[in-house]
Amino acid sequence: MIQRSRLAARRTRTAWLFLLPSLLVLLVAAAYPLWRTFQLSFYQVSILQFPLQPEWVGFDNYRFLLADPYWRVSLKNTAVFTVVSVALETVLGLGIALAVNARFAGRGLMRTAMLVPWAIPTVVSAQMWRWMYNDVYGVVNDLLLRAHLIAQPLAWLSDPHLALPGVIAVDVWKTTPFMALLLLAGLQSIPDELYEASTVDGASGWQQFWRITLPLLKPALLVALIFRTLDALRVFDVIYVMTGTNPTTMSMSVYARQQLVDFGALGYGSAVSMGIFLIIALFAAAYLVSLRVELD
Amino acid sequence: MKALKYVAIAALSVAFGSATSAQGVTLRISCGAVGQELELCTEGAQAWADKTGNKVEVVSTPNSTTDRLALYQQQLAAGSSDIDVYQIDVIWPGILSDFFIDLNDYVSSDLVAKFFPRIVAANTVDGRLVALPWFTDAGLLYYRTDLLKKYGYAKPPTTWDELEQMAAKIQAGERKAGNGSFWGFVFQGKAYEGLTCDALEWVFSHKGGTIVDQDGNITINNPNAVKAIQQAAGWVGKIAPPGVTSYQEEEARGVWQAGNAAFMRNWPYAYSLGNSADSPIKGKFDVTVLPKGGAEGQHAATLGGWQLAVSRFSKHPKEAVDLIVYLTGYEEQKRRAIKGSFLPTRPALYKDADVLAANPFMGKLYDVFVNAVPRPSAQTKQKYNQVSSAFWTAVHNVLVGQTDAATSLRMLEQQLKRIKGKGW
Questions:
Q1: Cβ contact, residue pair A246, B411, below 8 Å
Q2: What predicted TM-score, i.e. pTM, was given to this entire model?
Q3: Under CATH, to which class is B2-130+304-369 assigned?
Q4: Minimal Cα–Cα distance from A261 to chain B, Å?
Q5: How many Å apart are CA A89 and CA A105, to the nearest integer?
Q6: Complex ipTM, two decimals?
Q7: Any transmembrane segments, and where (chain A) (predicted)?
């Protein structure tokens, strides 16, 4: 008995020893910046001062944040972006994963080719799409005009009704392959015998999908959803490159950057960043809880 | 964060500090790259380098003034000695003054007296002269002389209503004649600093004030301003392309110089480019003052222009000052005026026969340039960028049809009050 607990204690010590490097990295790379951001969010301080003259303002920044119409706009945009893009990416990704999971000639080539959009850096693909969306020389308008689907060229990125859908489409184009890859891995862990047995029992393909594929894919699907949701909530590059700080598409991160960099408002910008942190932490916690329930 | 900053500074000083040699120093100057700017800046800097035996490297910057300011702020806030001389917008001295040296310590008051006193005043913050004026700017109306004649107009429009009518008539006629992509009027409608300039002209020409008045009061929510913005919103998609709400200077010039617009609002730099040898509209256009807002309105041109400042982190401030004195000197400004139609900042150059021969409009519109309307940067100081951003966003929302001008300006007033807080 005593022997055993001593062994356990030693194991625990070893475990901590192994964890130490990553904990240290986390402390330096995540905890310290977060702590500094938290501190700064109680000050009014401009990056334009030399030297800096921080002024303690208590909860003023947070009070301002709660009443800030542009913060609300960016919250709304981020919510729409996250829900629509993650939903589309999941459905399309699942479709593609099912397709490339089937056996057919050229499957290897197909699996590689589908990753191309994911492999291009976001800044590059966003700029590429920005040109394709251009109202005067863009290829999107050209194709639609030739197909007689529109009568007049559309200003894709400056029309308030089209800008956010336009950006979401680019994100879906880019990130669906990632979703498909994660789901493909999940599909491959489902044993073939289950399908064979159910075929013998006379189950249709539709029944197999709902009764076998989907339930067994659930853990992989959940992990993929967590990844994508957390990623989408802090979306920055695709929006910033395509439409800048335009309020019709501005996300929370774009707004934080505008405050911190364009306006040099370190205090208020930090309060915005803390707002983003809280929202993402909330989602992460909710997912972790649901994941534990699901996996157990 | 602080530690990182020092590492970055150390790395930069290793990288660039070692460039200093016995034969002179190496300076880095940041220049704009709109139109021929970069080419002319490089030539000027090279001429100084050849004369003095020093070296100059030219760093090009984003075309959007808004992006350029963000870049400068990051460089300067990090204490970087990477760039010695900064080309800064006329609205930035108040924002960036902490980071530039006081030129009064280096240049004589006789030299300063050779520039327009108003522009020198704009570059003086709390008694410190933070930059020397390089070229000035004022918004102008470009119009096609050949088309006006063709459609029976003897002179350019004097009010915005006239411009609307003429633009609509010419646009309809040219489209019927076969040019399907012809538009009446192009301007800067993207949500950035350029829209603040254009919209200030609309508002001021309707006697709607300057957003924030001399004493720092927020005046933008008034009936004249509402009328001005509402009228401009009516142009989009009718006499101006729908995509104009994403145009900066160069996009507008692209449409104009291809011969696809009857009118354009732009800065003087487009004059010499439009008259260059390979330009389809060479000799077919002229410039004049922008229209009045109705019969009781007034002509308005937003004051623009760029200055040269020396970073306080520069390792060679003496040489850097020598460079900016050379670049803002009589001869170099004359060369830039003739080759690039950049407006000089020295009154004497407006009487120079060579300058006037190359740019007849400089003599004709002299009064427009000296009476140009400044944006409210002096009043709003370090908060100017926030004020301007709120203003151009509010105007852009009206241009793209998301809201009407009255609602937008009422909301803008509320927002500006919050930005102002206890004071600017």
A1: no
A2: 0.82
A3: alpha beta
A4: 6
A5: 26
A6: 0.76
A7: 79-100, 263-289
